[in-house]
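Bench log, entry 3. Co-assembly request; chain sequences pasted below exactly as received.
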Amino acid sequence: MKYIDEFRDGELARALAQRIADEADPGRDYRLMEFCGGHTHAIFRYGVQDLMPANLRFVHGPGCPVCVLPMARIDQAIAMALEHEVTLCTYGDLMRVPASERKSLLKAKADGADIRMIYSTQDALAAARSAPERQVVLFAIGFETTTPPTAVAIKAARAEGLENFSVFCNHVLTPAALGTILASAGGGQDPGQGADRGAGAQGEAGVQLDGILGPSHVSTVIGSRPYEFVPSTFGKPVVIAGFEPLDVMQSALMLIRQINEGRREVENQYRRAVTRDGNRKAQALMAEVFAPRETFEWRGLGFLPNSALRIADAYADLDAEQRFPVTPRTSREIKGCECPSVLRGVMEPTDCKLFGTVCTPENPMGACMVSSEGACAAYWSYGRFRAPVAGPAVGASQETASAARASQDSAVGV
Amino acid sequence: MAAGSDQPTGERRLSASAPASGSASAPDQSSGQASDQSFGDRSVEHGSDAGDRQTAQKAGQAAGSKGAARRFAGRLDLKRGAVDMSHGSGGRAMAQLIDELFYRYLGNPLLEQGNDQALFQPPPGRLVTSTDGHVISPLFFPGGDIGSLAVHGTVNDVVMSGARPLYLTASFILEEGLPLADLDRIVASMGAAARAAGVQVVAGDTKVVERGKGDGCFIATTGIGVLPDGIEIAGERARPGDAILVSGSIGDHGVAILSKRENLGFETEIASDSQALNDLVAAMIDAVPGIHCLRDPTRGGLATTLNELALQSQVGMLIREPAIPVRAEVNGACELLGLDPLYVANEGKLIAICPGDQAENLLAAMRAHPKGQDAAIIGEVVEDPHHFVQMETTFGGSRIVDWLAGEQLPRIC
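Structure output for the full assembly:
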């Protein structure tokens, strides 16, 4: 396929792999965090790790929109659908994410809630137009990539006077999450000037990082400028990386060069889509329709200041949280689920006791096992067992393999 | 049947017994008769005595009405009419629907004998049967509709044993309000598909459920076929060293359906691959009688079907991504939606596994047939205690190709 196959070319990949092997210093480790789930997915789906030298490790970041959504917000959405009998529209990824009491949107739907899977915010608007007697709520989630379309929907509803449409806003901001991870991260082998800042610096909670593969789709909206605090404050190099496997490899090479040369910059590998300033029109739209929240909870990262958006006062009448208040309840994560640590890059999925035993994509205990961008799902689907020829094993301990086997048998036995 | 047990339905079976001799002992002949005679335009005035007799039996009347031509006040309004509850009530409305619509397209001597069951003598060989419920939205899609799908789905399941399909039964669950014009299109398409596959619908049933309790039309079909001695094709027969083949491009059906779902506004040129594979399979068995496994990768796609076979045969599989035929349009749609074509449904493709040294023969036979012209050898069966399906990616890496978990969900970003 044109414009796709070029970025998945096996020969180019082998040439790039050779260059990476040549330039990587065998005397040190390279721990590169890919922020986005899209990167994680590409790394596993195409076997990119197989092509990397043993001393280069990808650390999986929190950039999976459904993974970081706290359980309380899903509980709240389910309550809205059940208590206020609204039609709740949301993206497919979210349907199976576990909520409290073993619920999920999918199970709530089976219990009678009117929950619909949509492909775009326009579908939610269409649902509202076609059923004026029903209240339609768009359960909006995601990073800056999915925020402008939500803003468009809100403006359209206002312009049309669509009184039965509102938005349950859960949009979050990438730079805040990145800052939190870096603040708690260790400095790697040659820490930059700011590497010991932050709450969990060098502590148990921190993850050792040498560089960041920056978001691709998010950056088409916000540009590369918002990441400039990463080198200046935390002394870490950033390369904005596309989502195709060759993009990831080229970005890894660019990071290796920065690290080797002692540079700390924001570089842009994904120049075919990302500029320094991003999409100003989309930014203006977001600024008009949304306002920053003082604080917002992220699964795995806790409450982070200025890390999310709410609907601006001028559009408050379209805010589902105000229109359909629900009784707050205590949401409890499933015991033993290590999604929080996995999301911070502190743990690998295979370090979690639930991985592959009780937690599988068929029966996810945590959000990271649901989305194809979640690190646990990627490990499970693509990497839980590797043939000996495939190079460095990715978390394929004997126990994991046998647990995988046991679980697969039970999944088949129905 | 169970489907109608807890809601208001009417019931009437369309079934028949064949005479004890003649067509009963020679299904070939009855098949031939069916295609010659049974799908013509049957008007109310002639040929309705079978339905009449059945109505009489249902109503507990004397058999004296047998042979009397049935008259209805007017013909079914196929332009503006819609299914209502009376079409399932067992009364005249239902009789008229059966006469003017179902018999018209599906009629054949076995169906029209007018008993509550079809009676026939099986030909020599082993009998093969399979059943499949068809629920699809939208009812009409590029390349097919629920009617043709209900024939292809079940015929293909029978055929994957190597059997020759002979008979189908069909159970219709109609939703009140379904336009008769739609039903007419569906049954016409079903008749044409059955004729093309060389099978006869020999028993049927119609029920109507209230508006909102169905999705327009559900069709459950059961197929019966006959398997000659000496052919042993089954899911547990894959052996290390065997070759894995597919009969053509994968994912066409699923993407055709997705493209027509009302909330997905893109148009593609992709038509469903829905088709009966009996003739392709016959040609394959002629060329390579020792085929080990055949299976049609429907729901869950190629990936899930390979995993099923690997587990059933207690082997592993190694496939090569560049060898798997996928249309560029299917790839494009999947990229856009965050889906993987390996998991997208097919309705007219098959996976074949045969001894490695016969793979080229089988491939040549498949490619010589119009339904297998894009066939390819995509990998081989290996020993693997974990029974994993692994894939060498186009990119040069390798990965596991797992079972489909839940439904394939579009990604967010």
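The first helix of chain A runs from residue 10 to 23. DSSP finds 15 helices and 13 strands in chain A.
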